[in-house]
Each structure stands twice: as structure tokens, then as C-alpha cells.
Amino acid sequence: MQVKVSFYSFFKELAGCASLQETIAEGSTLDGLLDQVVERFPKLAGMRKSALIAVGLEYQPPGYVLKEGDEVSLFPPVQGG
Amino acid sequence: MDLSQDEIRRYSRHLILPEVGLAGQKKLRATSVLCIGAGGLGSPIAMYLAAAGIGRLGLVDFDLVDLSNLQRQVLHGTADVGRPKTDSARETIQQINPHVEIVVHQTRLTSQNALALLRPYDIIADGTDNFPTRYLTNDACVLLSKPNVYGSIFRFEGQASLFAPHLGAPCYRCLYPEPPPPGMVPSCAEGGVLGVLPGLIGLVQATEIIKLALGAGTPLLNRLLLFNALDMRFREVKLRRDPECPVCGEQPKIKELLDYEMFCGVEPHPTPAGMHSDEVTVQEMKRAIDNPVLGIKVIDVREPNEYDIARIDGVSLIPLSTLAERCGDLDPDQSYYIHCKSGGRSMTALNFLRQRGFKHLKSVKGGITAWSDEIDPSVPRY
């Protein structure tokens, strides 16, 4: 099945794109999807545990089981003030 | 106490709002807010809260006004360059509204002073510009059960939320349990920021503060507001508390403030100009000696005659002249800070040990002379 992954702020630069469609196995969790994304974009690896991840409009924990067509957003922490 | 004639005229546009009215305006006057940072976010927060008639406004900032601040930090003007931000902020706020009690703290927020600084205030506004201070502000607010009105910005994007575990909302750590690896996230100084962006995000924060004080409307609890100025789009992510959060979860591990620079893996203070990346300051050396839990050993590579003249407690002497024979006694995986008299020989020792596979080495800039100047004047200079 397919899910959409969108990158925000400087994650766009680290990934080199704003979003992509990712094919994942049935029953994959958010954590599993991140494994795949990090493998594709190794520059994101260091930020993996420091990103806020939402599915649709809701924050979800790593164990969340994805559904066909889910839209996953990755937000980096920003520090400026 | 009733509003004076002058206050009634000043706040008339509030007073005729049914959601504010006389009672609401008095609530604002009875509310105290501490704004951490008098920079990009702190400027609109402080100025609009002052104009709105907040009772007491505290400002924490250690920094001086720099010309590069003026593009967005509207508390400060051209004539203020080089002055403490708290001084120019105080004047600007007094000019806007003399009824506001202003309390300025020209200091860095630290684990040592945070609880005492935050405790007297009802609401805390996070206008800081770095991760260690954000985690520190968060943890102090959670420990004191104070609402933390959060905002942060980068380039064209910003985020804001109201963190308040005591009101059922998450805290900053529920969203970002682990700080990013040091150097991974650019600061505004490195990555830039659109000048109006902190205005927008700071005013979202100021609005939430006023709503909290009034008890009006729907607060930004359990929601992260995300703004993109280039798209001119606001988005919202629904949040929830993390029951395993180390500070606000069901079994909190953090019960007192930590060393946040260590937690975030960053240098304790901005690196002074002219510092080599292999160097640390005497302040960092003191921290290592005072906190054995950090696991850093400090060695002195001066010669025994010098050691007799002046020495620092908690430091082992391994003269440079004996280092080749004695380096077998040292552990290549251990962290060492190395000092000498003024920082030259310690760098030689560092390079020598590094060639022999030692991985975690720092040379103390200025050596024991800097220690005498900056830490303990009872240590003789020679």
C-alpha cells in the first residue's frame, strides 16, 4: 500500500524534496516507515528521534499502524526566537 | 481596586468588549507574565502585553543589542546598539504604558536561577533562541505547574502552542523527547529568518497569554499551530500528552532541573572569539571538576615545580615531560580536559594523546592563569 510523506522546514533540504509517495507493507507502523525513509535519505537519520510526526492532522506515536492513503508529516524542531 | 480615569480612557476599546469589560481588564492588571528572551518573539509579546495593560511584566535576557537584531527585534532601536537588551526593553515598555510594572533580569536563564525567576509569575512566555534554554524553560514550567506559552521560528516558518500538563495538555518534551544532535538544526543566525515572522508568532503567543488571563475563548491547548509565511498558511496538528514523558508523564524521571547544555550536547556558552574547537574554557573545566558525574577527568601537564607554586584541587598532575611514559596509565576512551599554565603545552599534550588513539580530549584555554583570573583569585599567578 501507499502513503504520502511530507517534509517541513529544513527537512525539505535534507530530503531534497517536499513530499513523496512511499510503498509499504500491510501492517507497517510509523516506525517501520521511518526506517524506509531514513534508508532513502540518510541525512535524516540523525533527526529521527527529534522529529514531530503527524498522520493527517494528528500527532501519532511510533507504534501507530498505517493505513492506505495516510498522509504522514515530518516536522523538525526549530529553535529560533 | 477600580481602574483610574486614565486607565478607563486608555483601555476603552477593551472595556467595551463584552469578553473583556471592566472585570477582564482588572484580571489583566492582576496577571504577571515572565518573558524569557527580549528578542524576536519577546519584542511583540512584551510590547503588546504592555499595551494591553498586563500588571507585571518580567523580562530575562543577558544579551546586548546588536545591529543585526533590529530587522525583527522591535523593542530595540538603532541608538540602543551595544546596550543591554533589558535596558532598551524597559524604556520602550515604559513609553508604551507607564502603568505596567516592569521587572528586568539581565542574566542568562540557568538551572540554578530558573525556578526562583519563574516562581513569582502566573504565565511564562518562551521567547528563547536555543534548545537548551527551551528544555530548561519547559522543565521549570512543568515542575512549577505554570503555563508555558511556546513559540519558535526559522526562516519562513514558525510554530506555537500552549504547554500545560497541569491543564491536561502536553509539554514540550511530549512533542520532542530528545534534542536533535548538536549542530543538526540551524539557528536563525545560521539559517536566517524573515523579520516579520517573530512578529506573527510572538503575537499568537501574546494572544494566548491574554486569553489565559481573561479565561476567554479556546486556548491553544493540545494543538500545535504551524505557520508558513511563504504559503501564507496556518496548519494545526492535534497533540496529546505522552504518558511516558520523562518530565510530565505518569512516572516522571526528571524531578529537578538538569544540566541542559550537557543534555543537548552543546557548548555551555557561546564559544568566545578566538577559541579553537579543541579548547574549553576554565568555566567548563570547573564544571567538570564540580560534577564528577559528567565523567570528565582533568589533568595538569605542567612540571612539578610549577605545581608547587599553584595548583587546582581535583586535578591530577602528569607533567608533559613524563607523558610518553605515563600515557599507558590513561584510558583512551575516557574524557580528559588538559590544562597547563596558559594553554600552549596542554594543546601539545592533546595532539600527542590524540595520535595515540585518545578520542575525547580538550585543552583548557588560558590554563591556570585564566583559572586565577576568572574562577579563583586565591590561586597564585606566576
> SSE order of chain A in H/E notation?
EHEHEEE
Oligomeric state: heterodimer
Classify the secondary structure makeup of chain B into a structural class: alpha/beta
Radius of gyration of chain B: 25 Å
Number of helices of chain B: 16
Describe the protein in words:
The complex is a heterodimer of chains A (81) and B (382). Chain A is α+β, with helices and mostly antiparallel strands and 81 residues long. Chain A has a single domain (2-75), classed as Beta-grasp domain (Ubiquitin-like (UB roll), Roll). Chain A has helices at 11-15, 30-40, and strands at 2-7, 19-23, 52-55, 58-59, 71-75. Chain A has a 5-stranded mixed beta sheet with strand order 2-1-5-3-4. With 382 residues, chain B is an alpha/beta fold. Chain B has 2 domains: 31-263, Rossmann fold, CATH 3.40.50; 279-374, Rhodanese-like domain (Oxidized Rhodanese, domain 1, 3-Layer(aba) Sandwich). Chain B is 34% helix and 17% strand. Chain B contains 16 helices and 13 strands. Chain B has helices at residues 5-10, 12-15, 21-29, 42-52, 85-96, 114-118, 131-144, 172-175, 188-191, 197-214, 260-264, 282-290, 304-309, 323-326, 344-355, 367-374; strands at 32-36, 56-60, 101-105, 123-126, 148-154, 157-163, 223-228, 233-238, 279-280, 296-300, 316-317, 335-339, 360-364. Chain B has an 8-stranded mixed beta sheet, with helices on both faces. Chain B has a 5-stranded parallel beta sheet with strand order 9-13-12-10-11. In chain B, helix 13 links the parallel strand 10 (296-300) and strand 11. Chain B is elongated, with a radius of gyration of 25 Å. The N and C termini of chain B lie far apart (64 Å). The model of chain B has no long low-confidence stretch (mean pLDDT 94). The interface between A and B is medium-sized, with 21 and 44 residues.
